[in-house]
Design a protein that fits this description.
Blueprint lengths: L24 H4 L7 E5 L5 H9 L4 E6 L2 H11 L7 E5 L2 H8 L5 E7 L17 H10 E11 L2 H12 L4 E3 L17 H8 L5 E7 L2
Parallel strand pairs: 1-2, 1-4, 2-3, 4-5
Antiparallel strand pairs: 5-7, 6-7
Helix pairs in contact: 4-5
């Protein structure tokens, strides 16, 4: 019987507020010293599944608040014996500061996050000011944060919040959106959006030294 997966999970729910235990990186990755990349809100993990095979000399961590998706993603990864890929069930808004040490993350991807359209629900959006501050601490100098969304208002909100932080510098074009995805792999949502002839709003931030 197929497991029903909720489309949205309220990250402000009390059950998602607990602290997360520190990870044993040596048990997760074959080579824990490789550059670490985070995919926040990785959903079913297909994007990272491709990235991990395309870039074997990088370590990838997918973080998702829906536990059933994380379990399924790790089960799909296992037969491929990918020692540079792991999926973690966590609420990134409460977990990031305890999950990774300062200046240890090379890059962060936040792609097509839940839009939470209703005004009273927008406090549930993943990119809140505290998350930006946590990213500023964990991303190393010269690292990046890449965002994309098919919802203009969501993309603008995320872009503006990151741009306001002095640790980050938006790369060109600073007055618009990237027309091409600089990453070698597209998410399922990106492919579907582009196939429908709809726009994707993207921007890339560099962590200042």
């Amino acid at each position: 019987m197929a497991v029903r997966v909720r489309q949205h999970v309220n990250p402000l729910s009390q059950k998602f507020q607990g602290a997360i235990a520190a990870l044993n990186w040596s048990a997760i990755y074959i080579n824990p010293n490789q550059p670490l990349f985070l995919d926040i809100g990785c959903a079913r993990g297909q994007f990272l599944l491709e990235m991990a095979q395309f870039q074997p000399h990088h370590n990838f961590l997918g973080i998702e608040i829906r536990q059933v998706l994380v379990e399924a993603a790790n089960q799909e990864r296992d037969p491929l014996h990918l020692g540079n890929l792991h999926y973690l069930f966590a609420n990134i808004n409460t977990a990031l500061s305890s999950l990774v040490s300062p200046s240890t993350v090379q890059g962060v991807m936040i792609q097509f996050p839940d839009p939470w359209f209703k005004r009273r629900h927008q406090k549930r959006r993943v990119v809140q000011p505290q998350l930006v501050q946590d990213l500023a601490i964990c991303v190393r100098s010269g690292g990046f944060v890449f965002i994309q969304s098919d919802i203009l208002a969501v993309a603008v909100e995320i872009r503006d919040r990151i741009a306001e932080h002095p640790a980050f510098e938006q790369m060109e074009p600073t007055d618009g959106w990237l027309t091409q995805n600089p990453l070698p792999v597209a998410t399922e949502r990106e492919r579907l959006t582009l196939e429908q002839g709809l726009p994707v709003y993207r921007c890339w931030f560099h962590k200042r030294g």
